[in-house]
Amino acid sequence: MRSDPADYELIAPGTLQAVVALLADEPGKWLPIAGGTDLMVLYAAGKLPARKLVSIWNLAELRGIEVLPDEIRIGAGCTYTELREHDVIAQEFPLLTSAARWTGGIANQNRGTLGGNIVNASPAADSLPALLAYEAELILVSVRGERRVPYVGFHTGYKKMKLAPDELICAICLRRVFSKYLHYSRKVGARNAQAISKVCVAALGRLRGGVGGGGDAIDDVRIALGSVAPVPLRLTEVERMVSGKSVDPELVKLARIAVAAAIQPIDDIRSTARYRAAVAGNLIAEFLEQLRATWKPA
Amino acid sequence: MSHSSGNGAKRELSLTVNGKPETVRVFPMERLLDVLRQELGLTGTKEGCGEGECGSCSVLMDGKLVNSCLIPALQAAGANLTTIEGVAEGPQLSALQAAFLECGGAQCGICTPGMILSASHLLKKKPEPTLDDIREALAGNLCRCTGYMQIFEAVAEAARRKSSV
């Protein structure tokens, strides 16, 4: 049943300081709302338990993408459109560009925010595997000050995260160290656009290159998957298993087995556990083969 | 610190719709879609799914394409909105509207206002779009009548006419 707007309160204090003061004043009572692409859907369906909302849409302190020498800082209120149109992100963090392009249609990309995607904590969120692969850090803000935490481990269970009731995500930081990596991303959904993922992958890899013998061995690799567990997953066991080795059919076969062991896919409205496991294995195999293809013998 | 507690109260919001300043008295969580249709009588904006999937309720807010079913009224305070009623150039149909009619891009009409606003958002960003650009720009707008081909054709035709003037 549809919600009655008379039952809800929504205010827009207009500054980050005023918003965090409100969150501190009545912890857990106010639900921040940015572009509304998730919360307004719940609201329309009569499934939004919070009755008091505070708008953080367009807060200047959460906007903008700051390009520093060592890292970029993406304001949590940046929209997918802003992400996908940003040149430095396209050049150095293309996994994030493709995730932004895959999320919803243009209208939702104009409203959905990266911070919102993190706190909405969908296991199927397309941007989150990219944040895992790039080892993003989050800046959290409250009246107590700022703290910086790694994104890996931030989501602790289905829709659960290490965010205090008085805190907001202020920015997402990515280190600018991935320009020499292969950036691999794939989303498998029911259709190309406006579909929620059955499986999505973000992976980075680099071969040893010209360093003595074994130049085609994997030097460094990061593999993250969405829609295969209650939280977006980084497959560290698979990474360890393939590191230092040359990609050959045997390694690809072992990697498939390790992927299947690391994920916990489920049957749901969008797909089945069996299909998801098969696709996850195929995508990691494709990634490893593309990584091997980057080898250029001297 | 004191905050109003319990239920929301109606408040006055000012916004500009199709160039005209408007003031409405609404609940802050009222959907922009309902404000347009019920408070302002602009029923050209349609409700399809009501959850941001179908694009029937697309409008331009400060020049950006949005689904008006997902915008709480308060977040539209002070905004500049364009709905389908503001697309025609006086008594003249816009190039897009004319092309939709001529190419058979409009059938039952429910998706048409959203399609036209999405297409006009595209043509502002890319006056000479490729077919892929058109498909991507309209990917968030569902049509159950046309099979889309006439719609894509209409957008391409409007782009050609605009670039030839």
Topology:
The complex is a heterodimer of chains A (298) and B (165).
Chain A: E1 9-11, H1 16-25, E2 31-33, H2 39-44, E3 52-55, E4 65-67, E5 71-75, H3 80-84, H4 87-92, H5 94-102, H6 106-109, H7 114-120, H8 127-133, E6 137-142, E7 145-150, E8 155-157, E9 160-161, E10 168-175, E11 182-188, E12 199-207, E13 218-226, E14 233-234, H9 236-242, H10 249-262, H11 273-293
Parallel strand pairs in A: 1-3, 2-3
Antiparallel strand pairs in A: 4-5, 5-10, 6-7, 6-10, 8-9, 11-12, 12-13, 13-14
Helix pairs in contact in A: 9-10, 10-11
Chain B: E1 11-17, E2 20-26, H1 32-39, E3 58-61, E4 64-67, E5 80-82, H2 95-103, H3 112-125, H4 131-137, H5 149-164
Parallel strand pairs in B: 1-5
Antiparallel strand pairs in B: 1-2, 3-4, 3-5
Helix pairs in contact in B: 2-5
Task: Give a description of the structure.
The complex is a heterodimer of chains A (298) and B (165). In chain A, strands 4-5-10-6-7 form a five-stranded antiparallel β-sheet. In chain A, strands 11-12-13-14 form a four-stranded antiparallel β-sheet, with helices on both faces. In chain A, strands 1-3-2 form a three-stranded parallel β-sheet, with no helix packed on it. Chain A is globular and about 65 Å long. Chain A has 298 residues and is an alpha+beta fold. In chain A, helix 9 runs antiparallel to helix 10. Chain A is built from eleven helices and 14 strands. Chain A folds into three domains: 49 residues, Uridine Diphospho-n-acetylenolpyruvylglucosamine Reductase, domain 2 (2-Layer Sandwich); 116 residues, 2-Layer Sandwich (Uridine Diphospho-n-acetylenolpyruvylglucosamine Reductase, domain 3); 112 residues, 2-Layer Sandwich (Enolase-like, domain 1). Helices cover 32% and strands 23% of the residues of chain A. Chain B is an alpha+beta fold and 165 residues long. Chain B folds into two domains: 76 residues, Beta-grasp domain (Ubiquitin-like (UB roll), Roll), CATH 3.10.20.30; 70 residues, DNA polymerase, domain 1 (Orthogonal Bundle). Chain B is 33% helix and 15% strand. Chain B has five helices and five strands, in the order ββαβββαααα. A five-stranded mixed β-sheet of chain B has the order 2-1-5-3-4, sandwiched between helices. Chain B is globular and about 50 Å long. The N terminus of chain B is likely disordered. Chains A and B meet through strand 1, helix 1, helix 2 and helix 6 of A and strand 4, helix 3 and helix 4 of B.
